[in-house]
Design a protein that fits this description.
Strands 1, 2, 8, 9, 10, 11, 17 and 18 form an eight-stranded mixed β-sheet that branches. Helix 1 links the parallel strand 1 and strand 2 (31-35). The protein has 419 residues and is α+β, with helices and mostly antiparallel strands. It folds into two domains: 2-49 and 154-238 and 349-405, FAD/NAD(P)-binding domain, CATH 3.50.50; 89-145 and 241-347, D-Amino Acid Oxidase, subunit A, domain 2 (D-Amino Acid Oxidase, Chain A, domain 2, 2-Layer Sandwich), CATH 3.30.9.10. The radius of gyration is 22 Å and the shape is elongated. The relative contact order is 0.20. 26% of the residues lie in helices and 28% in strands.
Amino acid sequence: MGEYDVIVVGAGIIGLATAYHIKRLSPGTKLVIVDMMRSPGSGDTSKSAGCYRTIFSSTTNYILSKSTIEFYKSIEAQGHDLRIMEIGYLILGSTDRLRTIENFARKLNIAYENVEKKLLNKLGIVTNPDEELSLEPIDGGVLIREAGILSVDKLVEFYVSMLRRMGVEFLLGVRVKRLLLEPLKPLGIEGEPFPWQDVKVTGIELDTGKILKAREKVILAIGAWTCELLDPVGIGVPVKPKKRQVFVIGAETAELREFMNTPNFNPYKILPVTILPRGIYLRPEPSEQAFWIGMSDHIGRPYRLEPTPQAESEFFIYGIYPVLSKYIPKFENLMPKASWAGHYDVSLVDGVPIVHEEEEVIIITGTSGSGIMKADALGRIAAHMYLGDTYAQLHKGFKIKVSDLGLKRRSVEPETLII
């Protein structure tokens, strides 16, 4: 049996950031990170599209993302190359849609520019597509400047290198079978804890049968798998898993290369992350001269956890391609050369992440697809929760009350901007 002060279950970006800030604030803490994958960050974190933005409707989400991105920029300024490229987000849509985006940007004091329809037409974007599919006309675009792309692999490398230097242990390639419950006042009777006893989470049992005990806290940072461990012990959080899929189309034609390497939007002369109506996004990957393409699907797709999620060719052919090719005919007759799939852990009630403590287990979940861009802030909040602090000090002077993201005294502004 192994014994630690803190056990962090989950070596994805949220678990890594949480462990990093616990050790930063409390260097003497004996901490282990446990994950079923054989290397850190190789679960759903590795399936991320690696995009970031600060534009949200919720001030809470803005603070989480803004402070996190500023921290990443500070890391890069110190010589850790995260391959951050602030190429912007170009959100396309109707006048009403654009006005909504502009209102959110003004509310949060985020820099933006309007993009006229004629420039979009010049790029080859069809602004009045075939009505057969009932596609929304594009009246223009809003370019959000403080947004872009980064290397998730490089970000994981940073955290792992720092954690190893701090003396954090990793136990990888093992599954957590269950959370261990013990009575607060044990009676020494076989079969404890009984339903009438007050209990707490005291550790984990691995699928190998090995027991790890936590003298202080168990921290769950396992995203879509959260309820798999919480449901059996009767702890509930309003989060469900949903598959996300990314498809790669190379800039194989001269037209697509010109489309990607446009000089109109940023110093990199790269197309911004572009959001089409119906939730389809194009994320350029300059190193590959390719587009990573996905879709934010809502109604009609199941909430479901898949042990080894695979991208579905039918999802691209029938879900993405008809819309993509109508708005951007340059993609006609092109199919993906690669694809992958992971999960979102969707925060069902308000679209804002959850950092909640119950029965000595701290739960970080509900990032709803924006875990990369909020990881540092969430890790800091969880670390301050572990230390018993009332407020969490975020990067760049941001401050947030630890209980605001919990479930007992939750105080967040709901998110309505789904892109």
